[in-house]
Specification:
Blueprint (H helix, E strand, L loop, with lengths): L9 H80 L3 H18 L15
């Protein structure tokens, strides 16, 4: 290259530009390689995160199903115990009704039915 204050020749300029172009091509290739490497690492990281997230979601779903199942079992037991109390309380009801029906039938046999009210004779005007 030309010294300070000296004009640069065309061949010197061409040589320097070729050198800069080679450096730029080299930098571009390295940058492209780094970008590809980063894309691959990012893709691998995303796949890993998706797999972990899917695993956690499956785990949460299983846990929720167990909790819902447990809650339903508790509810069924509570409802069953409440019906059991009602069933126990009125368990003797069929027998009591049968006895009452027999008592009523016996009373009907003993007491004559009441006489129906008589019709009044209509008056003519």
């Amino acid at each position: 290259m030309g010294e300070e204050g000296q004009p640069v020749t065309k061949s010197e300029l061409k040589s320097e530009l070729n050198g800069l172009e080679a450096k730029m091509v080299s930098m571009e290739e390295r940058l492209e390689a780094k970008m590809v490497s980063m894309e691959e690492r990012l893709e691998a990281k995303m796949v890993s995160m998706e797999e972990r997230l899917e695993g956690k979601m499956v785990s949460m779903e299983e846990r929720l199903l167990r909790e819902i199942g447990h809650a339903l079992n508790v509810a069924v037991e509570q409802i069953g115990s409440r019906f059991g109390v009602v069933d126990d309380k009125y368990q003797d009801l069929p027998g009591r009704v049968t006895k009452l029906e027999a008592d009523v039938a016996e009373l009907q046999q003993r007491v004559p039915p009441p006489e129906p009210p008589r019709k009044r004779a209509s008056r003519s005007r």
